[in-house]
Amino acid sequence: MTKKIAVLPGDGIGPEIIAEAVKVLEHLRTDGLDIEMNEAPVGGAGYEASGKPLPDDTLALAKASDAILLGAVGGYQWESLDISVRPEKGLLGLRAELELFSNLRPAILYKQLADASTLKPEVVSGLDILIVRELTGGIYFGQPRGIRILENGEKQGFNTLVYSESEIERIGRSAFDIAMKRGKKLCSVDKANVLECTELWREVMERVSKDYPEVELSHMYVDNAAMQLVRAPKQFDVMVTTNMFGDILSDCAAMLTGSIGMLPSASLDANGKGMYEPIHGSAPDIAGKNVANPLATILSVAMMLRYSLNEIAMADRIEKAVENVLDQGLRTADIDSEGMQKVSTSEMGDAVVSAL
Ligand code: IPM
Ligand code: MG
């Protein structure tokens, strides 16, 4: 049956990098991949088109699709809008409406890019971490929230950190399942020494671990986890954590590799439907210049084939093609170094298609 892919380029460099990922998908289609692609605006582009960062038609398309490929959202021109219609709300709305609670964020150091990291090579060489971030709960969505006026006239901002047992359990199971397919080591990150909500998080993780006796579960406070990530990152295999801690730690882990332009991500629901996007943002400063790195988006396509479309062989082919272009010495500006051949966004996309 033809699989439906919603293509949401978004803002900034989004359209340019998505164009290269679409080239890859078009190529695979000539090799027998049975897909239909439909494009729609989201983020700032959604706001311009309909006054909403997540237009109704875009949400309907996403709901009716088997997978979603997203570029990035956000830009300077929308920063002064009310928070309820800012581009980021488009992304948060998709996550919530589609119940994409399990966010997989790999941090892999490609051997060809060993010099890109700011850390010593021996600390990061061979790095391969997967952060599993809870994506539809916690302080990002907790109620009540807002800015209120106190009796003395002073303003007070407030947000709520909440997790129910079932929310913790499902992200826990998702992480344990993935740990089973990798090195069978799972580190759960919390702040159980201060926050009751994450005390419960730790308790539920322990409970879930009973069903996964082969997986070695450890716990770490988030401050220590941040420190350990830059001190000795190779001690980690899979990490599982809350929405906000995952937001912060995944940026930290991504930068260990020195090339955030290389890292894909997947956000999955309970049935394996997913949204796939590069970890980096919309980079408005370089938008429209044909210099952005499309590889994170192309690798997001590989994740989509693996997790939502069950086309494992094609996913492997994309990942090999990316290694191949790196071996050829092709580099976009963000990962360029001496002796390499600097290429544009579209040249990089074409090179991946040739390598396929
Ligand atoms: C991310 C981003 C988003 C988040 C923003 C753009 C809302 O930082 O995907 O990590 O905070 O989740
Ligand atoms: Mg983030």
Please tell me the overall pLDDT.
96
CATH homology group of the largest domain:
Isopropylmalate Dehydrogenase
The count of strands amounts to 14
Could you say what the CATH architecture of the largest domain is? 3-Layer(aba) Sandwich
Report the structural category. Answer: alpha/beta
C-alpha geometry: globular
Could you please describe the fold and organization of this structure?
The protein has 356 residues and is of the alpha/beta class. The chain folds into 2 domains: 1-101 and 269-356, Isopropylmalate Dehydrogenase (3-Layer(aba) Sandwich), CATH 3.40.718; 107-262, Isopropylmalate Dehydrogenase (3-Layer(aba) Sandwich). It is built from 12 helices and 14 strands. It has a 10-stranded mixed sheet with strand order 2-1-3-12-11-4-5-10-8-9, with helices on both faces. Helix 1 (14-30) links the parallel strand 1 and strand 2 (35-39). Helix 11 (312-327) crosses helix 12. The longest helix has 17 residues, at 14-30. The chain is globular. The mean pLDDT is 96. 3-isopropylmalic acid binds at residues 88, 91-92, 247.
Brief overview, please?
Helix content is 40%, strand content 20%.
What attributes characterize this protein structure?
356 residues, Isopropylmalate Dehydrogenase, 2 domains, two-stranded antiparallel sheet, 14 strands, 40% helix, binds 3-isopropylmalic acid, binds magnesium ion
